[in-house]
């Protein structure tokens, strides 16, 4: 995937350039803002860049850009420059969402490092300042997340200004706006399920967990970046329909893999504590399926422990074993495989470039077989 590797490098370079300019502006306002600059740079250094990649291949699938050899050239023109800025905007938006998500989930770690609110909470304590260190950390992280949201808009607009066709810019902006609304309300639905599940009929819990997957992650992680990229190339309705038919089921599979990693992932690889989703009380499809299969006493104990921030390693292992023994893991693996199959089948004879279809098939494998 030579083109994909090059795209990741170009996106990182665009982010670095943007942050260098904005960081210098912050320090001009006050030297005290250097810590904000440092936090933003740290958060946006590296990563898998899946959203940027789906944006790029959505664009390439429609534009038929260059040739079928998946090569990028720095002199490839305004279309490429636009997609790099827009793909970078998606990564900036993702960083903002992670900052806010970590506050809501009270997560201590992100990619093996202290989450932003924990970073500033610790700094407050080190300085022996007055007031509440946790409150200072959360408030600062909230502002940093908001700042990254604003910067993502700037990057997105910089990209669409490079387009030759105003209609394409409007279509891409509309897709971006829809994505932001969907992921925000999806995040609310996720929190709602964690707190209100006892008041819901058992028969509704699985469909409600699936709805969270669709709006919090599936559309935002795969479908929307594909549609945004394709819109930059002035995609036709059949082309957009083909990409959505591929992107939504793949996005569901992507999040189901994430849910498995949230329970069973290796902390050395995921950068988060083992069983993090169990401590947070995530009411995922995996957890919902496990609860359906657990016998009465085991199910009640499972519900009692799930969502306890103070779970020790032995209790985490007990919950992991309960999920595994229920057969829910095997069932989720089958659902993942089914969704990947549906997604890749949608590419067959789709009105998209052959090279992009091949690369999207490879990406489908990468995002659903990952270990972090």
Question: How does this model look, in words?
Answer:
The protein is mostly helical. It has one domain (2-368): Farnesyl Diphosphate Synthase. It is built from 16 helices and two strands. It has helices at 2-29, 34-43, 50-63, 78-105, 116-127, 133-161, 166-196, 202-232, 237-264, 267-270, 276-280, 285-293, 296-305, 313-325, 328-347, 354-368; strands at 109-110, 113-114. It has a two-stranded antiparallel sheet.
Beta-sheet strand percentage?
under 5%
Question: Treating each run of at least 4 consecutive H or I residues as one helix, how many helices?
Answer: 16
Q: What string, H for helix and E for strand, traces the elements in order?
A: HHHHEEHHHHHHHHHHHH
Please give the largest β-sheet: 2 strands, antiparallel
Number of domains: 1
Percentage of helical residues? over 70%
Q: How many angstroms separate the termini?
A: 20 Å
The CATH topology label is Farnesyl Diphosphate Synthase
Question: What is the CATH architecture descriptor?
Answer: Orthogonal Bundle
What would the principal axes of the Cα set say about the shape? globular
For the record, the CATH class is Mainly Alpha
Mean pLDDT score: 93
Q: Output the radius of gyration.
A: 21 Å
* Class by SSE composition: mainly alpha
The CATH homologous superfamily is named: Farnesyl Diphosphate Synthase
How many beta-strand runs? 2
Taking pLDDT < 50 over at least 5 consecutive residues as the criterion, the unreliable ranges are 65-70
Strand order of the largest sheet: 1-2
């Amino acid at each position: 995937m030579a083109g994909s590797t090059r795209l990741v490098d170009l996106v990182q370079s665009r982010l670095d350039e943007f942050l260098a300019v904005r960081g210098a502006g912050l320090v001009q306002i006050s030297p005290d803002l250097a810590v904000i600059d440092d936090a933003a740079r740290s958060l946006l250094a590296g990563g898998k860049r899946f959203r940027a990649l789906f944006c790029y291949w959505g664009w390439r699938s429609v534009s038929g850009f260059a040739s079928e050899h998946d090569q990028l050239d720095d002199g490839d023109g305004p279309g490429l420059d636009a997609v790099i800025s827009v793909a970078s905007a998606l990564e900036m938006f993702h960083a903002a969402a992670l900052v806010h998500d970590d506050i809501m989930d009270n997560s201590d770690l992100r990619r093996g490092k202290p989450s932003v609110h924990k970073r500033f909470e610790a700094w407050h304590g080190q300085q022996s300042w007055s007031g509440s260190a946790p409150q200072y950390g959360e408030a600062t992280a909230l502002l940093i997340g908001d700042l990254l949201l604003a910067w993502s808009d700037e990057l997105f607009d910089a990209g669409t200004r490079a387009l030759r066709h105003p209609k394409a810019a409007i279509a891409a902006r509309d897709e971006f706006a829809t994505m932001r609304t969907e992921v925000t309300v999806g995040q609310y639905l996720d929190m709602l399920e964690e707190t209100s599940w006892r008041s819901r009929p058992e028969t509704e819990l699985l469909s409600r967990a699936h709805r969270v997957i669709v709006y919090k992650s599936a559309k935002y992680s795969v479908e929307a970046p594909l549609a945004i990229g394709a819109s930059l190339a002035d995609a036709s309705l059949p082309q957009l329909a083909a990409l959505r038919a591929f992107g939504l089921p793949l996005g569901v599979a992507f999040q189901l893999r994430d849910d498995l990693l949230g329970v069973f992932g290796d902390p050395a690889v995921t950068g988060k504590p083992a069983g993090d989703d169990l401590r947070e009380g995530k009411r995922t499809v995996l957890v919902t399926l496990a609860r359906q299969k657990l016998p009465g006493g085991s199910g009640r104990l499972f519900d009692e422990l799930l969502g306890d921030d103070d779970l020790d390693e032995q209790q985490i292992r007990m919950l992991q074993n309960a999920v595994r023994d229920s057969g829910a893991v095997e069932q989720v693996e089958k659902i993942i495989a089914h969704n990947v199959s549906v997604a890749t089948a949608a590419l067959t004879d789709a009105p998209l470039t052959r090279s992009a279809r091949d690369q999207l098939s490879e990406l489908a494998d990468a995002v659903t077989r990952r270990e972090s």
